[in-house]
Amino acid sequence: MSIKSGIPGQLKLRPRADRQTDRAAAAALPAKMTARGVKVFYGAKQALKGIDLDIQENRVLALIGPSGCGKSTFLRCLNRMNDTIEGCRVEGRIALDGEDVYGKAVDAVQLRARVGMVFQKPNPFPKSIYDNVAYGPRIHGLASGRDELDEVVQTSLKRAGLWAEVKDRLREPGTSLSGGQQQRLCIARAIAVSPEVILMDEPCSALDPIATAHIEELIDELRANYTIVIVTHNMQQAARVSQRTAFFHLGEMVECDDTEEIFTNPRDERTQGYITGRYG
Amino acid sequence: MTDLVEQDVAAVTPSPSPSSSPAKSRLRSEAFARRLRARHAAERRFRLAGAAAVALAALILVLLLGSIVAKGASAFLETRIRLEVTLDPAEVADRNYTALLRRALYAQFPQVTDRAGRRVLNDLLSSGAPYELEAMVARDPALVGTTRTVWVRADDQIDQLVKGGYRRDLPESERGLSDAKVAATDALLASGALAQGFNTTLFTAGDSREPEQAGIGGAIVGSLLTLLVTMALSVPVGISAAVYLEEFAPKNRWTDLIEVNINNLAAVPSIIFGLLGLAVFLGFFGMPRSAPLVGGLVMALMTLPVIIIASRVALKAVPPSIREAALGIGASPLQTVLHHVLPLAMPGILTGTIIGMARALGETAPLLMIGMVAFIVDIPHGLTDSATVLPVQIYMWADSPERAFTERTSAAILILLGVLILLNGAAVILRKIFERRW
């Protein structure tokens, strides 16, 4: 099997020289978040074995790799969601704008407002559509008064591409929406608190292809305002939505590069094997 | 990574086509058909056994309820005697209402003039009848000096005779009721001066040695006060403990130990809690005996484990995705619990709470230890007044020798069951309301 046959069809190939200059430019982009030597232990079991990774501002970083490789674990380190797991220990340094997120000066609650998250399974609160989106701004005191809150809810729903579908039924429960709509509601809920980074943990794995396409378009639009990290099992999706891709395998980050580069010219044998579908 | 590649190749190798596999022919064999029939037969047998068990349980329940209703229904009626009472101002001034009533009764039996005969007539009236008359005069003093038709309570023996509690065909010595009383009752019945009406006394009065004056009013108030104390203590403490243990406490040996102890406490015989109450609340803190306050405290200790366990189960049942969603947008752990987890767990918590309350309402043993088993005539007005509760009242009445207490015991059981059904109904309604809100 050749490498080329494994390249997702949607990927637009450009001349190699162009890609090289892009790579150089990309490397120079400022990093919104940086991870250095991140190790994670669940009890005695080590899930991550020292990850070094830069997450650049206003770009989409895709984390790919076979199941159990630690990509979701890494994602959950970025907003300290791992804190809630009993027996989970994180070593190394993760910084947001140069500040250690595991440092004493950083509050997990504030961090999670700055680094929002969208989960694998759509998990709207069993409340109205309006309350789902308004919850974050309410608890953080981001909107003063009813009108401002309405405004935030409307903007968030519009950005999530859901406004047209739900504007007449904001009082209905969020759980009454379809799966794809629920996931967009969760994205609206996440962006309502104006985070700087959005983490997405396989956001489309529970959705049908049409809903997936919707979300992927949305991710591309959101890139203008947010830094996005997305975990996905779907390599076409990684190729379609991301600018950079990191390949994880058995708790290690094998390789991280421009998405085009990873899919056309992977340097590591394991990456090549994975993207050509030989395992994973 | 060659191992991975090889593994993959093996998976891609086409497997033998299913039609040629020996498994297929086995699925069509006679032996398989036999096994299939046996499996269906086993299923039918199981269903039949299940249905039979349900039917048996229903039958026993119907028998139990039927026997209680049959025994207790008559207690909701009481027998009253009609008297033409002339309210002589001199006797009223002396508060000699007994004499007034007796005079009116003698007037209905002009042929009875001897002392023995009149004593029989005196016994037809309840010893509480004069107080009824006194209360009537107190309500309307203008009655003094007039002649009025009044209906006063009959003695419990007469009441039982009218209801068929005594066998008339037995000789006087075995019947337990004299021929003279039977004759006098029959005469009153014939003249229409004896009638049955709804027994309000049963609901309003406190306990009494005289069955016709005894009621469960005091016990109901005592039960309510006790339950109030129990609820005020065990609900907030129980839910807070459950939330802390389930959502915040670290999982280590200490919390394991606490969990094991809570589970054990739920299985501790209730009388042990009574002993604890006796030693701690009465002995050490010197709280009043027989008081709903102490009863409530003891019941709170008893119901706490039940509420904690039920609440923890309800909290555990809330999907973790809701917690993640809330934490993911920066809600603090407490906000996550208060805004999302607790409301979702509320129906389950309420159910557990009501089950705990129902158990407290029906509990007798621990209250025996703290003196709530006393004979108390007055209806309690506060948490420190002497009181008794419904199940203890039932227990005490069941011990009384008078025939009339038998039916009152059954009636009190019916009322207790009614209150329990009301409580459970409230639980169901509350559940529905909470579920609709979410």
Automatic annotation (TrEMBL), chain A:
<dbReference type="InterPro" id="IPR005670">
    <property type="entry name" value="PstB-like"/>
</dbReference>
<protein>
    <submittedName>
        <fullName>Phosphate ABC transporter ATP-binding protein, PhoT family</fullName>
    </submittedName>
</protein>
<keyword id="KW-0592">Phosphate transport</keyword>
<dbReference type="GO" id="GO:0035435">
    <property type="term" value="P:phosphate ion transmembrane transport"/>
</dbReference>
<dbReference type="GO" id="GO:0016887">
    <property type="term" value="F:ATP hydrolysis activity"/>
</dbReference>
<keyword id="KW-0067">ATP-binding</keyword>
<comment type="function">
    <text>Part of the ABC transporter complex PstSACB involved in phosphate import. Responsible for energy coupling to the transport system.</text>
</comment>
<feature type="domain" description="ABC transporter">
    <location>
        <begin position="33"/>
        <end position="275"/>
    </location>
</feature>
<keyword id="KW-0813">Transport</keyword>
<dbReference type="GO" id="GO:0005524">
    <property type="term" value="F:ATP binding"/>
</dbReference>
<dbReference type="GO" id="GO:0005886">
    <property type="term" value="C:plasma membrane"/>
</dbReference>
<keyword id="KW-0472">Membrane</keyword>
<keyword id="KW-0547">Nucleotide-binding</keyword>
<dbReference type="Pfam" id="PF00005">
    <property type="entry name" value="ABC_tran"/>
</dbReference>
<dbReference type="InterPro" id="IPR017871">
    <property type="entry name" value="ABC_transporter-like_CS"/>
</dbReference>
<dbReference type="InterPro" id="IPR003593">
    <property type="entry name" value="AAA+_ATPase"/>
</dbReference>
<dbReference type="GO" id="GO:0005315">
    <property type="term" value="F:phosphate transmembrane transporter activity"/>
</dbReference>
<keyword id="KW-1278">Translocase</keyword>
<dbReference type="InterPro" id="IPR027417">
    <property type="entry name" value="P-loop_NTPase"/>
</dbReference>
<keyword id="KW-1003">Cell membrane</keyword>
<dbReference type="InterPro" id="IPR003439">
    <property type="entry name" value="ABC_transporter-like_ATP-bd"/>
</dbReference>
TrEMBL record, chain B:
<feature type="transmembrane region" description="Helical">
    <location>
        <begin position="48"/>
        <end position="70"/>
    </location>
</feature>
<keyword id="KW-1003">Cell membrane</keyword>
<keyword id="KW-1133">Transmembrane helix</keyword>
<keyword id="KW-0813">Transport</keyword>
<dbReference type="Pfam" id="PF11812">
    <property type="entry name" value="DUF3333"/>
</dbReference>
<keyword id="KW-0812">Transmembrane</keyword>
<feature type="transmembrane region" description="Helical">
    <location>
        <begin position="411"/>
        <end position="430"/>
    </location>
</feature>
<dbReference type="InterPro" id="IPR000515">
    <property type="entry name" value="MetI-like"/>
</dbReference>
<feature type="transmembrane region" description="Helical">
    <location>
        <begin position="293"/>
        <end position="315"/>
    </location>
</feature>
<dbReference type="Pfam" id="PF00528">
    <property type="entry name" value="BPD_transp_1"/>
</dbReference>
<feature type="transmembrane region" description="Helical">
    <location>
        <begin position="219"/>
        <end position="245"/>
    </location>
</feature>
<dbReference type="InterPro" id="IPR035906">
    <property type="entry name" value="MetI-like_sf"/>
</dbReference>
<feature type="domain" description="ABC transmembrane type-1">
    <location>
        <begin position="220"/>
        <end position="426"/>
    </location>
</feature>
<feature type="region of interest" description="Disordered">
    <location>
        <begin position="1"/>
        <end position="26"/>
    </location>
</feature>
<protein>
    <recommendedName>
        <fullName>Phosphate transport system permease protein PstA</fullName>
    </recommendedName>
</protein>
<comment type="similarity">
    <text>Belongs to the binding-protein-dependent transport system permease family. CysTW subfamily.</text>
</comment>
<dbReference type="GO" id="GO:0005315">
    <property type="term" value="F:phosphate transmembrane transporter activity"/>
</dbReference>
<dbReference type="GO" id="GO:0005886">
    <property type="term" value="C:plasma membrane"/>
</dbReference>
<dbReference type="GO" id="GO:0035435">
    <property type="term" value="P:phosphate ion transmembrane transport"/>
</dbReference>
<dbReference type="InterPro" id="IPR005672">
    <property type="entry name" value="Phosphate_PstA"/>
</dbReference>
<feature type="transmembrane region" description="Helical">
    <location>
        <begin position="337"/>
        <end position="358"/>
    </location>
</feature>
<feature type="transmembrane region" description="Helical">
    <location>
        <begin position="265"/>
        <end position="286"/>
    </location>
</feature>
